[in-house]
Amino acid sequence: MPVSVDRHRAQIGAILEGWGMPPANAAAAADGIAWADFRGVKSHGISKLPGYDVWRRDGRIRVEAAPRIERETPVSALVDGDGGLGYAAGRLAMQTAIAKAQASGIGAVSARNSAHFGACGFYTEMAVEAGLIGLVTTGTAACSVAPTLGMEAKLGTDPISFGAPAEGDDYFLLDMATTTVAQGKILNLFVENQPSPPGWILNAAGEASTDTRDYFDNGGFITSLGGSLLGSSYKGYGLSVMVNILSACLSGSSLITDPLHAKRPGHPNNIGHFFLALDPGLFREPADFRRDVSTLIDSLRATKPLDSATPVMVAGDPERKAMAKHAKEGIDVAPNMKAKIRALAEDAGAPWLLEEEAV
What we know:
Layout: H1 5-18, H2 23-38, H3 49-58, E1 68-73, E2 76-80, H4 86-104, E3 106-114, H5 120-129, E4 133-138, E5 160-165, E6 171-176, H6 183-191, E7 201-202, E8 208-209, H7 212-216, E9 221-222, H8 233-249, E10 271-278, H9 286-301, H10 317-329, H11 335-348
Parallel strand pairs: 2-3
Antiparallel strand pairs: 1-2, 3-10, 4-5, 4-10, 5-6, 7-8, 7-9
């Protein structure tokens, strides 16, 4: 039975606090995780908790972490995540970038010694809500993607997000993996014993597969954006390298090409992130900028569709549609995943909150 987004968020926070995470950090993480589920991005929602539980037990995240700024100029900063989940470090980093952009026009913040921080769009939206352009990238713990023409995993899903404000409460918000699909979407199908669509995964021999076990159990790969050389997968491959340069090389975090990346027992993952906030007012009147963004995206939405039942959208529109649905009907969790979350709640001594119908 679906529950309200507030109750959904409360369940996540209760489990995290049950693990010993400081309340402020637990709230930051619960906000980011619930943000994703509320927008229908279930690859980065509550389904991440079982994996986080494994990481904390293996010492790959520090639940008591206290992120801090280690280096700073008027337009830049370096954040150390103290080995914790990346939500608190990510929020600190983007808040810092926004403050610097509001004061100087631009803010660029790099973060290291962090771990998975949820959906990049969560942080990009923070910049957009402040009337700024936002750009966010992150490295990943999982090395799961073979470079184009390769048969050995050397990269991750390596996401990137870009956002810009438009007039009123409208905006453009792109949030994408540099692979054909986010790993979490494959995980959700795997947990529910369902196949993946064609083009998402390859088996260990580099052949196309729809069996999610080929990826999770049998040494397969996720495809780069484009799926194959014929489909221009080298473009996704190139974007992935760009993300790693911004996220890892700039921050001094672990390189994903290191054979021991995120695999050292008892050591934090040391993932890197990058955050940029840019004030359009550096170049022109902000209101004029927002008007032109609205003109552009509204024109795209007005494109004659192939099917009148499925109008043309811009990045951020599907999420807005999901938000309206979930605000009315509540957020549900698939049966097998719900059982996993309930077991986590019981183990953490947290109350079980995912059965009450949303209001």
